[in-house]
Amino acid sequence: MLALDMYNFDKKINRKTNSLKYDDLESVFGSKDIDALWVADMDIATPIFIRDAILKRSKHKIYGYEKTKDKLYSSIQKWQHEQYNWKIKTKDILVVNGIRASLSAGVKAYSNIGDEVITFTPVWTPFFDSVTRNDRKLVKVKLQKNTNSYDIDFKAFTKAITKNTKILLLCSPHNPTGRVWSKKELLKLGNICLKHNIKIISDEIYSDLSFKKFIPIASVSKDISNITLTLNSPNKAFNIAGLNVSYAIAQDRKMYEEFSKIANARYINNITIFSSLAVIASYSKEGKIWIEEIKQYLKNNIRYTEQYLKENIPSIKYKKTNASYLIWLDFTDSSLSHEEIQKVLIKKCKIGLSNGHGFDKETGNKHFRMNLAIPFKEVKSVLKRLFRYNAKIINI
Ligand SMILES: Cc1ncc(COP(=O)(O)O)c(C=O)c1O
User: Fold this and answer.
1) CB of 258 closer than 6 angstroms to any ligand 1 atom
2) Which amino acid residue places its CA nearest to atom 5 of ligand 1?
């Protein structure tokens, strides 16, 4: 029986394994001598029960092709039901080798060349690329920046809709703001989409790392589920990004078939023997305990950072993160340009953050995303450096 409090998240792990986050520091930031707080994976060991499942299979002498395991589907169904009270069937699920592949396939499946796809900005870059690379028209609707949170601007959303709007790409919970959408917001959004015949593609990869109640948009009403393709994966919460595994859920048959036709044509609907074992191991009893523990640790890193900024560096602003290990930092009080701020962050503070311009040049200007899935000791050290060089960052 696994007990709570059984993991040690404080341990520093050497990540020079050709990892994007560490081994690309020099080429992206021009320095190796900085803390890597950018790429969204965790500097925390992937849980032992996943590593064990992979190790066990790796001992077999042949890594040949394999059929998709029934257990893979039942694990996904059980997880969605038990964690989010959302009932899905095996036939609603398609495994895909990554969310980006599904975003792109979904855009292709539910729209034609030249059609419009709406997304809320700032948002993770592939939400843009998956639209433009398929020759669809990207329509950005800015999230409303209110005192305490980023909110959906329903007026602006409705205004942006035209007869050519075919899809809403939704990030739920939202990267980079860490916003968890409420049932009321999801219903309102879904009903607008229903009214205007717009399909929803909802990327829910951060759902398992929500600090408040997470609701899959497809679970809020039958009608909304019939216009929704949901994308998810244990990737973020279980730190298995390198396994390239995800799944898509469509409860409407026609939507499922349109999506799987593109997925088949692009050969994206197969995963490795190790990825399928990792999903099964994640969505287990041990996985539930892990989720509670890791969330507690990450939430502490986030809340500590928020409090520290509030008390010691109020010129660096933020909205409360309610999901993920990311914090979207706002440096708009600075008189420096975006590029000059980044220079101080790299050269003085010695930290490498995700560039806000990647999340949208306008709403991401003078913003940087910080990845706090690191040992707590390092969080403190990063914050001390931000404090020490704050005058240089703000430059007023
Ligand atoms: C919102 C969101 N979706 C999905 C992913 C991962 O996608 P993929 O499965 O293509 O690696 C990320 C990774 O950063 C993300 O931030």
Assistant:
1) no
2) 99
